[in-house]
Every structure is written in C-alpha cells, then in structure tokens.
C-alpha cells in the first residue's frame, strides 16, 4: 500500500482501484496547450453539475476531488500551484485524472533551441518545461486522460493549414490506441469552446467510474462521448422542419433553416441545439448562428469559408425543393381546415351537433 501526496491511499494497481473504487482522486488540468483558455472559462458556467458541487463533495457517490486548475486554483501560483504536477511527474501522486486544454505543438520540427509553449520551469536549470515534457511524464501515469475542447481533441484552430507549429490533438500525439492506467482510451470532449454541461457530465461519469459505481463512458470512433455526439445538430434543431419543407433562410435574421447561408448542421455531430448553452438557453442555431462544425475532427479546414453555403447544401436543397413545395401546400390546406371551428358552434334554436341518444326508447 502506498500513500499519495494528497494523503489518499492506493491499495493496488490502477486497474484494481478502478474495480474497487477510489475514495480520493486529483484532477491535474493543464491549459498550456495552444489555446485561449476558453474551455476552462466555459466549464465554469455548468450548473448540472457545477464544478463547485464536485469539489465541495455535494454529489453523492463521487470520490473526494482535488482540482488543480490555474484559473480556479486557491493557491498563490508559482511553485505552490506546480507542486502536485511535479509530484505526479515523479510518480508520487495518484490516482489522478489528467485534463489537457489546447492543442499539442510538434517540438520535433524546431531546428535548434526554443519551444512553442511551456508550463513551469526546470528547478535545476531554470529552463521552461514544455507542454510535451509534461504530457510525456503525466499521461502514462494518469488513471484517465481527458482532452477538453476541440484544440486538445483534434487540433482545432491552431492546427489549421499553414500553421507553423505542427499542432495536433492529444490522441494524435499519444496515439489513438493509447490506454491510461485505468485502461481507458483518451476521452475527447470537443467544442470551441466545450459546452459546459457536456464536459461536466462526462467528467462526472468518469468520477463515478473511478468510484467503482459506473462502467467506463461509451465513446464513438473519434473517442467522443457517444450519448452526447451520437446525433447531428440537424436532428436536434428546432429549424429542421423548415429544411424538410424546403423553406430556407436568406439572411441571418430569419427563423428558418440556415443551410443556404452557411450552416453545416445536417452533417455535424453535436447536441447543442437540444441542450442549449447555459441553463438550457442559447446554442448556435438556437440564437441565429450557423453551425461551423467545431466539434468535428475536420474543423476548421473542412468547414471554411464559414459563411459560404456548405458543399452539397445546394444539391440537397434543390432535391428537396419539389417535395417541400408539395408538403407546404398540403399542410397549409390542412392547417386552414383545422383552424376552423365546427359548424354546430352557434347560438341558433336548432341543435345541429349530431347528438343522437340512440339508447333511449
């Protein structure tokens, strides 16, 4: 039995712990990837659950959670903040969940000295420690590894064509067949930024799994939570009926389907139209914004220019036009008929409702 830096005890291997459950676990969150820290900021907006509820132990059945995130840290920063990260790199802290925010640059393409991004300094030399250095040491020791946001999952904006950094997603860096100490693949939660509840719901599932009271979260072939990204934007969009009727918006002020003005919703895996953004309110198509595919591995290159009609959009809109025109007309006729009251609603002397008490003699 070993005692961790956080004071918890590990009574065996990580696999044994996953089976029996942990009573305490650390979350080491590094946002020094190529990013804007928007995923951390977005995550704080979650209410179901809130990160505060998890850290304060208000959710039954979860292990005690020690969160180490630079934006939310109660420390003064510096070495005090870095202490658990250094302990984990030495193998003195466990179990822990490693969360990476931001894309991973390719340090191998730098010819000579220099670095793309760093997190703390080497105490012996004073030289910056690169993000890659930390990932190389922490990921193999982590009970679970989570990529937060599209930059960390698939490379995102920083990995687009023409970038000088050779950026990539965490699975590209570690390998798509990577398995953590908890025998888990990398868990990708994309979004630019992450939808708050999507991330916190996934983290909560992982924590219940760490506690030994839930199975591993089901992931799709791109390692995204299947229950969150198994359907398209279009399938949950309240504008989808306009598409079926070939009734398309011509500008961004229209409540109709926005496929002709740049929306990629019919082919993008995301649940934002159903879930909303904060407390069920908002979300790109819900407030008049087009879907630009930010939860997809091909983002942003495959979806640019963002405001142009998607490839295939013109063809699908043309094909559905005759069907939509007929359906709109037929539904209009039925709608007109159903908007009329029955003829026996009158104040005349005759009863014309068809009332006929046949059971009376």
From TrEMBL:
This is Hydrogenase small subunit. Gene3D superfamilies: Cytochrome-c3 hydrogenase, C-terminal domain (4.10.480.10), NADH:ubiquinone oxidoreductase-like, 20kDa subunit (3.40.50.700). Residues 229-306 form the Cytochrome-c3 hydrogenase C-terminal domain. [3Fe-4S] cluster binds at residues 291, 294. Pfam families: NiFe_hyd_SSU_C, Oxidored_q6. Residues 36-204 form the NADH:ubiquinone oxidoreductase-like 20kDa subunit domain. GO terms for cellular component: [Ni-Fe] hydrogenase complex; cell envelope; ferredoxin hydrogenase complex; membrane. GO terms for molecular function: 3 iron, 4 sulfur cluster binding; 4 iron, 4 sulfur cluster binding; electron transfer activity; ferredoxin hydrogenase activity; metal ion binding. InterPro entries: Cytochrome-c3_hydrogenase_C, NADH_UbQ_OxRdtase-like_20kDa, NiFe-Hase_small_C_sf, NiFe_Hase_small_N_sf, NiFe_hydrogenase_ssu. GO terms for biological process: anaerobic respiration. [4Fe-4S] cluster 1 binds at residues 36, 151, 192. It is found in: Cell envelope. Heterodimer of a large and a small subunit. Its cofactor is [4Fe-4S] cluster. Keywords: 3Fe-4S, 4Fe-4S, Iron, Iron-sulfur, Metal-binding, Oxidoreductase, Signal. Belongs to the [NiFe]/[NiFeSe] hydrogenase small subunit family. [4Fe-4S] cluster 2 binds at residues 234, 237, 257, 263.
């Amino acid at each position: 039995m070993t005692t961790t830096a956080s004071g918890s005890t590990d009574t065996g291997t990580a696999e044994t712990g996953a089976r029996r459950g942990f009573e305490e676990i650390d979350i080491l969150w590094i946002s020094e990837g190529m990013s804007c820290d928007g995923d951390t900021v977005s995550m704080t907006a979650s209410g179901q659950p809130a990160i505060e509820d998890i850290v304060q132990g208000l959710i039954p059945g979860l292990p005690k959670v020690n969160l180490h995130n630079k934006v939310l840290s109660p420390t003064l920063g510096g070495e005090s903040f870095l202490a658990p990260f250094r302990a984990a790199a030495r193998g003195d802290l466990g179990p822990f969940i490693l969360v990476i925010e931001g894309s991973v640059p390719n340090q191998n393409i730098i010819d000579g000295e220099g670095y793309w991004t760093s997190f703390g300094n080497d105490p012996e030399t004073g030289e910056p420690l690169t993000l890659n250095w930390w990932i190389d040491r922490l990921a193999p020791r982590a009970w679970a590894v989570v990529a937060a946001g599209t930059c960390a999952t698939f490379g995102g904006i920083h990995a687009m064509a023409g970038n000088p950094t050779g950026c990539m997603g965490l699975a590209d860096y570690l390998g798509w067949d990577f398995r953590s100490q908890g025998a888990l693949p990398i868990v990708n939660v994309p979004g630019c930024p992450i939808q708050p509840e999507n991330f916190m719901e996934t983290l909560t599932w992982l924590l219940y799994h760490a506690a030994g009271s839930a199975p591993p979260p089901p992931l799709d072939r791109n390692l995204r939570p299947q229950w969150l990204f198994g359907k398209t934007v279009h399938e949950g969009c309240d504008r989808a009926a306009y598409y079926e009727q070939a009734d398309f918006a011509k500008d961004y002020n229209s409540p109709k389907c926005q496929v002709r003005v740049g929306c990629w919703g019919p082919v993008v895996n995301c649940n934002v139209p159903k879930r909303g953004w904060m407390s069920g309110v908002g979300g790109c198509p819900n407030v008049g914004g087009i879907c630009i595919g930010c939860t997809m591995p091909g983002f942003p290159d495959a979806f640019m220019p963002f405001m142009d009609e998607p490839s295939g959009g013109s063809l699908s809109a043309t094909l559905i036009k005759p069907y939509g025109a007929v359906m709109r007309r037929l539904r209009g006729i039925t709608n007109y008929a159903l908007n009329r009251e029955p003829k026996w609603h009158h104040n005349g002397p005759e009863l014309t409702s068809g009332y006929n008490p046949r059971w009376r003699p």
